[in-house]
Amino acid sequence: MRGENASTRTLGAAMSTPDAMPTARTAEGPRATEYAPLPPLPLREGIGDGQILGRGHAIEPPVPASPAAATATTLCAFSIDVEEYFHAEVFAGALTPQRRVELPSRAAAPLECLLTLLSETGSRATLFVLGQCARPLARLLREAAAAGHEIACHGHAHAHLARLDPQSFREDLRIARRTIEEHVGVSPRGYRAPTFSLTRKTAWALDVLIDEGFTYDASIFPVRHDRYGVPDAPHVPFLAVAPSGRSMVEFPPLTIGLRRLRLPVGGGGYLRLLPGWVVRAAVRRAARRGRPALIYVHPWELDPGQPRLPAGVLATWRHRVGLRSTHAKLRRLLAGQRFDSISRVLARITRRPGLTRFAL
Ligand SMILES: [Zn+2]
Fold first, then answer.
1. What is residue 255's predicted lDDT score, i.e. its pLDDT?
2. Using an 8 Å Cβ cutoff, are 334 and 314 in contact?
3. How far is the CA of 98 from the centre of ligand 1 (A)?
4. Element at 338 (helix H, strand E)
């Protein structure tokens, strides 16, 4: 990632905060309010094979011919959780909203770097956009949508679902969707919970997502972990049955089975910690067997120059391990395998009969 350090230092974009836009210029980037005014866009849905389903006078985005052709049959999906380094759960207890206002925004440069990598290698992705990031990153997100990437939702304030209840979750979802619609011009239909925090204890969130019109979720990690996970959940796409008995399509991140263990390899600290060949081999194996595979990454994972924030020794290590090698790993991964957005991969999978039903 050495090649990206310079641009990472110079291309920050200011972040919004839970309550307000930033008020101070940072050394790393402009204030969000300094972005040129954006013209209103016709609203469209963030799902489908280029098909526009939205309200208003939508215009089909210019999807590049090469990625569409290259990804026409793949079941490998790539996803980016569009958030800032300070949104990571390890800092949730240490940073007040006021402290976040003062922190430099750095997501624009690594996000642009990821989009370039995807473009160069002929892949498309799903961008789970945090509502708070939609305005500061609006121009880049609109360009991503126009390039054929899917715009989905990562909530608004990055609250772990265990800290919410159905009503506050519904409000967070609505604010996020409204903000994304306003600044990116897309109505997201896919959702990923912050920190994969949709578990048995927060299964009520599935009913809220269904009520709010989301069509798929990608929040259930079929592993054992201290902050998230449903260890016995299927490790390929399935129908997650909500407490009400209704269900929605779920796409879990890539894992591999090792004897009785199921190990995560599809992203985050695991992808940064493991040798690159392990992840590439897992993706190749899934592709060879016709099984779906889902990779996830955050822009801050390509930014080794990000400020050190207060957290415990172990938490700091988990957050920072492998930051310098993420870019090279992703480059090799993307060079060897074409990826598509989650909605397009799900459209291919759900044409098959018999998705497993799994009740949380
Ligand atoms: Zn997140």
1. 94
2. no
3. 20
4. none
Q: What is the pLDDT of residue 66?
A: 60
Task: Please write the tens of the pLDDT for every residue from 139-161.
Answer: 999 999 999 999 999 999 999 99
Radius of gyration of the chain (CA): 19
Residue 29 has pLDDT above 80, yes or no: no
- Quote the ligand 1 centre to 65 CA distance (angstroms): 31
Which band of pLDDT confidence, cut at 50, 70 and 90, is reported for residue 102? confident
Q: State the CATH class of domain 2-359.
A: alpha beta
Q: Which of 254, 206, 237, 222 is nearest to 350 (CA)?
A: 237
- Bridge pairing between strands 261-264 and 255-258: antiparallel
Contact by Cβ (8 Å): 190, 155:
no
Q: How far is the CA of 360 from the centre of ligand 1 (A)?
A: 22
Q: Which two tokens stand for residue 217?
A: 């979720």
Domain parsing of the chain, residue ranges: 2-359
296 Cα: distance to centroid of ligand 1 (angstroms): 10
pLDDT in tens, 337-354: 999 999 999 999 877 677
Q: Which of 140, 145, 142, 168 lies closest to 155, judged by CA?
A: 168
C-alpha 328 – ligand 1 centre gap (Å): 22
